[in-house]
Amino acid sequence: MRRKFYLSLILIALIGFMGTVSCRRADENEQAKTESGKQEPSQIAAPEEPARPEKASPGSGDAEVDAILAKYFDSLGGRAKWNDVKTLKYTGKMNSMGKLFQMAIVYKRPDKCRIDFSLGHVYFIQSYDGKEAWKFNPTTEGSKPELLEGEDESSLVETCDFDGPLVDPESKGIKVELVGKEKIEDRDAYNLKITFKSGNVDNYYLDAKTYLPFMVKGTTKQDGKVMPSTTIIDEYIDTGGVMIPYYFKFEAEGGEGPEIIKVSTVELNPEIEDTVFTFPRRIEDSY
Questions:
Q1: What residues form DSSP beta bridges with 99?
Q2: How far apart are CA 230 and CA 9, in angstroms?
Q3: Residue 3: what pLDDT?
Q4: Is the pLDDT of residue 121 over 80?
Q5: Main-chain phi, psi angles of 73, to 5 degrees
Q6: 30: which of 179, 224, 238, 275 is 20 to 30 A away, CA to CA?
Q7: 275 and 244 in contact (C-beta within 8 Å)?
């Protein structure tokens, strides 16, 4: 179960990119209350039905699961191409409760990330530098950066995993299980149950033809209530030889309506200093 965070998981962590999409959410509801044309997806060649390898690759401990994950990796662009990506930067917009948030997310191998978003002239930050997770919420008393703890910290740490849970999961203490092959509307899909080291659980649905995730189901916490949640992932576009989704739609059952993220730009390997992610004594030191 995930608390609502400032941004989605991953959504874009986003970010659905190497499986980092997740049903953890940003708690923009409380923040917003303090303030008064989809592109055509790229055509992707369908990999063959996965065989059962004798050895695990990329490593879940289950031969059938590993075969699916290997096809997933191939569809993204392949291990060599992905390993060449050391840093990432996303910019885009999130539509939530009738308000339009501007956002920017940066990643650096192996586990650093920072999420910035703004509503008008109010700016929010969450970041993890590989050691400390922190946030800045200017709507709270004192308006100072503060360290995250407990579930908030563990959720952000999971979000900042550069490769995501579908790459070398066993080495990260993540369990991946094949629930089965299901029919989701007009497409066949592999349902993979992802159990994180923290105990959080998501179900990833991979298209049986393209092997790319198109939906993630999990739970979220809003106003103290645990709700089932669904993230739709779409508009995969070949970006520098790697397939990246540019569209995310998040919705919680019984929530306040869907939230939509549209990615505007993606930069591969921009120069990013480690200090960008470090917990600041003053918020102005983080820029």
A1: 96
A2: 12
A3: 43
A4: yes
A5: -60, -45
A6: 275
A7: no
pLDDT in tens, 15-68: 334 444 444 443 434 343 344 333 444 444 445 555 444 333 445 558 999 999
CA geometry: angle at 73 spanning 15 and 215, to 5°?
45
* Distance (Å) of CA 12 to CA 8, 120, 142, 154, 168: 6, 21, 29, 17, 20
Are 165 and 194 a contacting pair, CB within 8 Å?
yes
Give the per-residue pLDDT at 188: 97
> Chain-wide mean pLDDT for the chain?
80
Q: How far apart are CA 268 and CA 5, in angstroms?
A: 25
Average pLDDT score over residue span 154-167: 88
For residues 210 and 33, give the distance between their C-alpha atoms in angstroms, rounded to a whole number: 41
End-to-end CA distance of the chain: 32
Bridge partners, residue 275, by sequence: none
Distance from C-alpha of 146 to C-alpha of 135, rounded to nearest angstrom:
6
Q: Which two tokens stand for residue 235?
A: 């508009």
Between residues 54 and 233, which one has the greater pLDDT? 233
Spatial distance between the Cα atoms of 187 and 274, rounded to a whole number of angstroms: 42
Give the DSSP per-residue string, 140-169.
STT---EE--HHHHHHHHHHT-SS-TTSS-
128 burial (CB, 10 Å; 0-12 / 13-18 / 19+) is buried
Tell how many helices (H) and how many strands (E) occur in the chain: 4, 14
* pLDDT given at position 25: 41
For the chain, domain boundaries? 2-35+44-286
Q: Is the pLDDT of residue 120 over 60?
A: yes
CATH number for the segment(s) 2-35+44-286: 2.50.20.10
